[in-house]
Structure formats: C-alpha cells, structure tokens
C-alpha cells in the first residue's frame, strides 16, 4: 500500500441545540493513502458530510465541535489548527467539490473570474497568468469551448458544466486530497458517468487522492479502491471495493445494495433498510405472465390522455435589433396514456421531459398540437374550465421543500387546495381526510401541525404526495420526484406510489433520469432526445433490446456496480 496521507483516529463530533449537546459522529477511524480513491457511503444523517467538513475545519461555528480524536495530515493534527491556518490549507492541500454547484458558485460572477480568484489567493500568478491557467484547467476538466465558459455566468451553462467548473476550482492549486461530496446526485446518468470518468482521470494524472461521498453504493463501487459504509454516525464496514460489494458482512451494507431496483427482475415490493434489519423482505416477483395479463386489460380501454403532434417553441430576442431565434423544446410528440398505466419518460437534461409535462398540465401551453384528456382537447379550454381540470391532473415536484410554504403547517398546506376545489363538506371534514391521508403516506397525525423544515427529505416528499392525492386526481405527473432521495427512502416512496396506484386507480407519468427506477415503475417507456421521441415501447423490451444508439448510451451509463 502507498504512504498514508490522512489518519483519522476515534473522531467524535457533537452539535449543540437548546443548550443540549448531541453526539453525531461516534468515534470513527480510517486512513486515506496516496493515489487512492476512498468511497464513503451511507444515507442522509449517517455522518458522511459532517466527518468530511471536520477535515476542512468547516463545521458550523458555535453549534458544533470535535469533542475527541485526531485528524493527522502530513504529520500535523488538523483538530488544533486556527482559522487562519485552515485558510492556507483549504484549496491548497485539501479541496472540496460540493453537492449543489448552483448554490456553491457565485451567480453574479463569471465562471472564469471565480477560478482566478482562488489562483490569486493561493499562488503568485498575475491576472494574465491566472486567466491562462484557468483556460488550461477548463480544458483539463473537458469543458466544451473553454473561452465561452470563462465569460459565462453560472446560469448560462448546464448542470454538468457547472459541476466541471467546480472541479476546475477544486484542482486549481493541485491539492493532495479532493473531497467530492455527492458530486453527481442531481445529474443525468450520462453526465454522471462523464464526471466519474473525469475524476478517475484527474486522480491518475494529478496524483491526488479522492474521498468520494455518495448514497449510491453501485456508483461508488465504479470509482473507488476502498469503501467505508457509514450508518448513524459510525463506520459499520470498510474494506476493498470487491469485498464490500460482492461479499458484504453487515446487514446494512446488504440492504444498501439491494434497495435499488434491479434491472433483471421486478419485485412486487422493493426491500427497504428496515426490511433487511427486521428480516421482513418480500421476495414476490411480478412475472411476465402477470405483466402481460395486466397490459391486456389496460390497453383494451380508451386512452385517458392522448397527446397529438405537440410542439413547444420558444423565441429568444438577441438585443434590441437582433434577429429572433426559434428553439423547439418539444418537437412533434404524440403518445397515448391509459387509465391505471405508468408511463416512463426518460432522457437527458434539456431533452424536453419537463417542458412536455408543463404543456400537459397547461402551465406552459403548447404552441402547436392537441392534448385530449378524456376526449376533450384541453388546449382549447377557457380559464374556468382549466381550473376545474387542475383537480384531475396533479404533479409531484422534484424538490418538495421549494414547493411548500415554509410558514404554513403542512396540514393547512394540504387542506388549502381541497378548499379551493370544494373537496370535503367543512374544515373539520377536510382535516379528518388529511389525517387519514397522512397515515396512508406513512406520516403520523402529529405531522399535521409541523412545518416543512421539521421533516427529512423523504418525509417532505411524502407530504408532496399527500398534497397531490388530496384532490383525488385521475392523473399524477411525478417529475423527478425521487431523484434526491436516499436509496432506502426512494424504495419506500416507490412502494407507496405503487400502493396508491393499486388502491386509488391512479395513472402516472413518471419522469426521471434514474433509468433503473423508471424501468421498475413503468408499463410503457418513452425515450426523449432534443425535443423528439427517440424510442417508445414496453419498458422491458426497450431496456432488453434498445433499437436506437441514444437509448443504448443511456442504458450503458447506468451504474451497475461490480
């Protein structure tokens, strides 16, 4: 094994709330070696990010502290460093790529200037040399057209490009250690693959070590040499990637591997972490015969939704006197959706998935084509009729926190649209209905009085589901509704969506960039590319025998582990 670069021994971290001290990290110990990629896996709240922030002296001041243990880097204990000493170390010796590049980049500064700022602070380069070095870095992280990105503001480039700018900033001063905290979570499967390959390439060429943090064990196994598995502030298992992935010893590790939907088998119920811990996993499988029987019944009825030759065109005006340019975000899309069906919609960012769903919801009406809901062309409805339609077609958003009012208790937030659409005879009756709904989505009745910030990500997603189904809709559009969730929470939410579908006869349009999830959920599948339908058919057939190169590329990019 190479030389030891980092040695963490018996690290304890506590947070203080209401004068009470609560330990979050319970005595973890691990090493990082030169030229190594160490994967750190675990769900939200397991302590992955807190332990990495401790390395960089970035634990929140005043409310958190290291109570015990040591972090040795190059023979120096980092737990004794002052703020000024940490400033010299950060970026120079240890750098970090954060999960959300949009909130980590300054929206009012051009991308190039943000990298130069770091170079001027940590090196003796001049402004001119800084620009040259920045362009070299942009080439190194394989950014297309580095000159354009250099002059662009963060909002003018894609998510994958923003993440590459963040990586360029992190490696600007040739750090010995790069901490990558969930750097691919919100990215398309193909962009995710590119970022993984880029980090591997940089690690090999720059000779640095990487700590790669994620909740996705399959993804981590594709990049790492060794893996640590964290659970409730402790390391429950660590070892070489093959040992952890192919022969896990701990129940929790086995659960993490198996909670993700498999591509070769469709279970009736996805196992959750608790199922593994309590040994209550349901191994019942949906057979091809079951699926065929269900589809015969589904497709013998009239469609609930028919999208015919739909287009959505945007016009951008280049300055006062510039010629307007036209861009078709959705281009001649047609399909049918049947009651009780789940239609999967996949494709990379910018392919037109969300634009199409907004057109179906009539939030951003199409510029051409027809959308028939139960035989009525909804593109021709007046405002009053559209308002009535809103009750029938609901949406579950990707970010439930952003779609909930932080000042309204969630019980009231769910009751509000019920009142608008005259569901329930009185407030008392509506409250009873909401209490029942909260129970159905796996939240207790006390949740009625809580505010959005008092819930975890998975619980907030359940609130979003409860609010959507409170209106007793016929069609629900799930727009990336599980993409930000932990693997186990994701399994719980997918099981819940399937249960609700069986109990209430819902019809879903399921949009996601996670192809294994879409395959598990869907009857039919639509693959979109640059506003058009690239491929369409039975989900299993499209996955098993993709016809188009684009579909093959998407499927090939799915992290499959070892």
On the 0-100 scale, what is the average pLDDT?
88
**Strand portion, in percent?**
15-25%
Mass-distribution shape: globular
Radius of gyration: 25 Å
Largest pleated sheet: 6 strands, mixed
Give the terminus-to-terminus CA distance. 22 Å
Number of helical segments? 22
Oligomer: single chain
Number of DSSP E strands: 20
Low-confidence stretches: none
User: How would you write the strand order of the largest sheet?
Assistant: 6-7-8-3-9-10
Summing up helix and strand content along with how strands pair, one would put the structural category as: alpha/beta
Helix content: 25-40%
Can you walk me through this structure?
- The protein has 562 residues and is an alpha/beta fold.
- Helix 5 packs across helix 7 and helix 18 packs parallel to helix 19.
- A six-stranded mixed beta sheet has the order 6-7-8-3-9-10, with helices on both faces. The protein has a six-stranded mixed beta sheet with strand order 16-17-18-13-19-20, with helices on both faces. Strands 2-1-4-5 form a four-stranded antiparallel beta sheet, with helices on one face.
- The chain is built from 22 helices and 20 strands.
- The mean pLDDT is 88.
């Amino acid at each position: 094994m190479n030389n030891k670069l980092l040695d963490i021994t018996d690290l304890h971290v506590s947070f203080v709330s209401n004068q009470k001290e609560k330990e979050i990290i319970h005595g973890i110990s691990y090493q990082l070696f030169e030229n190594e990629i160490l994967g750190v896996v675990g769900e939200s709240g397991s302590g992955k990010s807190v332990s990495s922030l401790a390395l960089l002296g970035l634990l929140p001041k005043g409310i958190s502290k290291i109570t015990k243990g040591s972090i040795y880097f190059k023979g120096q204990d980092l737990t004794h460093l002052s703020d000024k000493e940490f400033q010299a170390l950060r970026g120079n010796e240890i750098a970090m790529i954060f999960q959300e590049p949009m909130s980590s980049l300054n929206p009012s500064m051009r991308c190039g200037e943000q990298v130069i700022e770091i170079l001027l602070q940590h090196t003796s380069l001049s402004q001119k040399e800084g620009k040259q070095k920045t362009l070299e870095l942009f080439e190194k992280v394989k950014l297309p057209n580095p000159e354009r990105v250099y002059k662009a503001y963060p909002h003018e480039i894609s998510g994958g490009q923003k993440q590459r700018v963040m990586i360029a900033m992190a490696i600007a001063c040739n750090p010995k250690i790069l901490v990558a905290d969930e750097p691919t979570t919100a990215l398309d499967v193909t962009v995710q693959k590119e970022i993984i390959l880029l980090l591997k390439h940089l690690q090999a060429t720059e000779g640095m070590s990487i700590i790669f943090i994620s909740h996705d064990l399959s993804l981590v196994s594709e990049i790492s040499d060794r893996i640590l598995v964290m659970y409730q502030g402790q390391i429950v298992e660590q070892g070489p990637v093959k040992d952890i992935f192919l022969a896990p010893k701990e129940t929790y590790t086995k659960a993490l591997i198996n909670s993700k939907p498999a591509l070769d088998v469709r279970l009736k119920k996805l196992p959750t972490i608790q199922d593994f811990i309590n040994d209550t996993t349901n191994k019942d499988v949906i057979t091809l015969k079951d699926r065929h029987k269900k589809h015969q019944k589904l497709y013998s009825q009239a469609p609930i939704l028919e999208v015919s030759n739909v287009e959505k065109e945007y016009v951008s005006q280049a300055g006062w006197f510039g010629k307007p340019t036209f861009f078709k975000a959705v281009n001649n899309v047609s399909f049918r959706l049947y009651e009780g069906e789940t239609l999967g919609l996949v494709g990379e960012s910018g392919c037109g998935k969300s634009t199409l769903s907004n057109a179906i919801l009539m939030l951003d009406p199409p510029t051409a084509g027809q959308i028939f809901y139960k035989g009525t062309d909804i593109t021709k409805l007046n405002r009053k009729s559209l308002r009535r339609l809103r009750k029938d077609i609901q949406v579950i958003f990707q970010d439930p926190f952003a779609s909930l009012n932080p000042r309204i208790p969630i019980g009231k937030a769910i009751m509000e649209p019920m009142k608008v659409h005259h569901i329930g005879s009185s407030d008392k009756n509506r409250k009873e209905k909401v209490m029942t709904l909260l129970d159905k989505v796996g939240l207790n009745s006390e949740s009625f009085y809580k505010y959005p910030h008092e819930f975890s990500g998975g619980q907030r997603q359940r609130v979003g589901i409860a609010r959507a189904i409170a209106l007793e809709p016929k069609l629900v559009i799930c727009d990336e509704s599980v993409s930000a969730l932990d693997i186990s929470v994701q399994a719980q939410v997918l099981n819940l969506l399937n249960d609700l579908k069986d109990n209430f006869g819902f019809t879903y349009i399921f949009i996601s960039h996670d192809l294994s999830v879409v395959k598990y959920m869907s009857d039919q599948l639509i693959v979109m590319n640059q506003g058009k339908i690239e491929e369409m058919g039975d989900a299993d057939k499209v996955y098993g025998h993709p016809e188009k190169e684009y579909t093959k590329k998407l499927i090939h990019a799915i992290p499959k582990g070892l």
